[in-house]
Amino acid sequence: MLIVDAVLETFDAAEFVQWPVADVPAHRLLALSGRLSPLEVGVAMATLADYNSDSSDRDGAVVDGSALVRRLVEAECVIAPGGLRVRDTGSGVTVAPGCCCGLEDWREWLGLVDGDVPWLGHDPSPRMECVGRVVRLWPDGGDSTDSTETPQGPPIEIPADCLTGILRTVQDELSGFLALVERWADRHVPGLAPALATKLDEDLDIGAPLLKGGS
């Protein structure tokens, strides 16, 4: 069975005090969905606020939660460390996004239908290739996407015809997360809740139709 999650690479929030947060998950990857607890949503929002802050936010000065969220809303473009994680429960292989991969680019996987391979980050450097109507994924295939050497270990194989359905499921999970964010913001920063939901919807490209002229 294949499980594809939209994951956020969280930061160490042990000293974060602007709002309540859960413990950082194993491997620091938090799967975003409508099933997160309020404390897990808090971790996600703390991560986004930290990742999109500038150097002046890290000078040791205490910034209240409303100010952090307001800066997020006013950011030119919110970026989210992470991406899509693919797990094959049959083989036990997991392919997670590498460093510097961004969840905001999750729709680039749609290009696989036409053989366009998205960048999946580095260190590790997940390897992806299209062979006929099958997409193959390895957890780490080296830094060179042009390498002709086959990575070690079995790949995860995804039929290209299944990609749109998989990405619709990812979109549904992200929409569920977005609903939780607005509910969370209603409690912690009520005056910013609608603007925050709109900002994340636009910059993480959540709600727009997946395909032109359709859903």
UniProtKB/TrEMBL annotation:
It comes from the Bacteria. This is Uncharacterized protein. It comes from Streptomyces chattanoogensis.
